[in-house]
Design goal:
mainly alpha, 77% helix, 0% strand, elongated
Length: 82
Amino acid sequence: MAAPPQDINSLNNAFDRAAARRTISPREAQGLRQQARDVQRLYGQYARNGLDRGEVRNLQQRVNSVRVALRMERRDWDGRRG
């Protein structure tokens, strides 16, 4: 399992690539970046006292859900969130 900060950075890179290729709209990219910031903020809260397995699992699930959202946005071709 990769470390959460690396996963979050890879998400942001994926958003940048998708936006540059115009497979997602700027509005979709903005919403996805907000979700990634939320995960980053949660990571910061958890990391203050060290991460336990449950927290790492929670962060990983959140990262995965943002990845799924990115896949869905790429496929819908409507330029809108959701």
